């Protein structure tokens, strides 16, 4: 962990507390996702794929590979499992028959949402206690964190282009 020291001890302490809280939130989020995936009889990468599709509506197998950081071979196996479990459909793209478009089956969305319901209700109550200005600050913070995550993923994947090394 790299930390820059602030000349203001109260600010330095607050920043250290924020970084610690962020790491713990990330760890707990990971543990929760593993527990939810296990409850649904899925691998965590399967759950990540389904969450992505629930937000995106549909995506190509290549987009799913990029989003989940899996190889195309691993994505092919994952999509086969998810199709057999009835979570997704996979159809050839009529505009480009080499591509496969994957879509979440609408009748399975409730099954995916159910394990999150209690947490979502509690999170909604938590956010209700914030002012609009505080919520906008949190949104900006999360937007910036997402951009940092994406940049770091590009860096880790190789040459900064997001392409895996050969």
UniProtKB/TrEMBL annotation:
Pfam families, sorted: MarR_2
Superkingdom in the source lineage: Bacteria
Gene Ontology terms for molecular function: DNA binding
Record-annotated HTH marR-type domain positions: 11-147
PROSITE patterns in UniProt: HTH_MARR_2
Alphabetized UniProt keyword annotations: DNA-binding
PANTHER family listed in its UniProt record: TRANSCRIPTIONAL REGULATOR, MARR FAMILY (PTHR33164), TRANSCRIPTIONAL REGULATORY PROTEIN (PTHR33164:SF106)
Name of the protein in its database record: DNA-binding transcriptional regulator, MarR family
